[in-house]
Design goal:
The protein is globular and about 40 Å long. A hairpin with a 3-residue loop joins β4 and β5. The longest helix is centred in the first third of the chain and has 36 residues. With about 200 residues, it is α+β, with helices and mostly antiparallel strands.
């Protein structure tokens, strides 16, 4: 009888220990998942300005956008958004700053950028931007925000035209990169480094 009791007690202890270790393992895994979900960016910055739709933009902003559209052989859409950084608004003679100011927050995580604000998106550093690659949309929008933060005068129209191309080449040349006008892994990382300086 005592032998049966000892065996039962041993089994109960083993189950208790195993149950406890499973709980600790589960807790450890949950903590690892939570640690990843609160990943901190390597750097971040904000940029403020005014967002116009093509249809309602001042004429000189429209003219600049039309030129880029002709270069890329696309037709402007009336609801296309054009972001003019606050310190660039003076370049446009008939532009009256809007009452409401927009802000973009850009975070860099090493393998990706996350942008929040007037619009929200993520761009991986494996994305290629430039002629023969992505020439419109969020990756170009991000490229233009990063160029602006790096000291280049630019309107953020999400189109990769000759103006953005020449600024990318200038940036690459200034920072010892291959000046091919294409934003790839090395250029993304250098843009991140420069905007954080």
């Amino acid at each position: 009888m005592l032998k049966k009791f000892k065996n039962a007690l041993s089994i109960a202890c083993c189950l208790f220990v195993l149950g406890g270790s499973v709980s600790f393992a589960d807790l450890k895994n949950n903590n690892e998942i939570n640690d990843r979900s609160v990943e901190n960016p390597i750097y971040e910055f904000n940029i403020q300005g005014y967002t116009y739709t093509y249809e309602n933009a001042p004429q000189d902003i429209k003219d600049e956008y039309d030129k880029t559209c002709r270069e890329l052989n696309i037709t402007p859409s009336p609801d296309t958004e054009i972001f003019v950084p606050a310190d660039e608004i003076h370049k446009y003679t008939d532009a009256v700053p809007l009452v409401e100011i927009d802000k973009f927050n850009v975070k860099y995580f090493g393998s990706r950028f996350e942008v929040t604000g007037a619009k929200t998106y993520t761009v991986g550093t494996s994305t290629y931007v430039g002629y023969g690659h992505v020439t419109s949309g969020n990756p170009v929008h991000l490229t233009q925000l990063l160029l602006k933060k790096s000291g280049y005068s630019t309107t953020v129209d999400s189109l990769f035209g000759s103006s953005t191309y020449s600024k990318v080449k200038s940036f690459q040349s200034n920072y010892g990169l291959n000046a091919d006008g294409i934003v790839g892994l090395g250029t993304w990382h250098k843009l991140a480094e420069v905007t954080n300086a």
